[in-house]
UniProtKB/TrEMBL annotation:
Family annotation (Pfam families): ThiS
UniProt keywords, alphabetically: Nucleotide-binding
Protein's recorded name: Molybdopterin synthase sulfur carrier subunit
Domain of life assignment: Bacteria
Organism expressing this protein natively: Algoriphagus zhangzhouensis
Stated family: Belongs to the MoaD family.
High-level lineage: Bacteria, Pseudomonadati, Bacteroidota, Cytophagia, Cytophagales
Length: 78
């Protein structure tokens, strides 16, 4: 299992702040796609962090038991 956390407008869209998800050997891109489809996140803009590090290319990532994924709203500078 991995921990998935939702912040800002993503938390509002999912109506939850987090959940546990079974990865069972799935690639990261498939897990991301499943979560996006489950909560209809396709229209939202967000960034993803794995173990508190922003991910720019999720296709190259392999998830491990105990990892943490965070769906983050867009950042604005200042």
């Amino acid at each position: 299992m991995i921990q998935v956390k939702y912040f800002g407008m993503i938390a509002e869209a999912t109506s939850k702040e987090g959940e546990e998800v079974s990865v069972s050997g799935k690639p990261f891109s498939e897990v991301l796609s499943e979560i996006s489809s489950k909560y209809n996140l396709g229209d939202l803009s967000y960034q993803v962090a794995v173990n508190k590090k922003l991910v720019s290319n999720p296709a190259d990532l392999q998830l491990n038991e105990g990892d943490e994924i965070a769906f983050l709203p867009p950042f604005s500078g200042g």
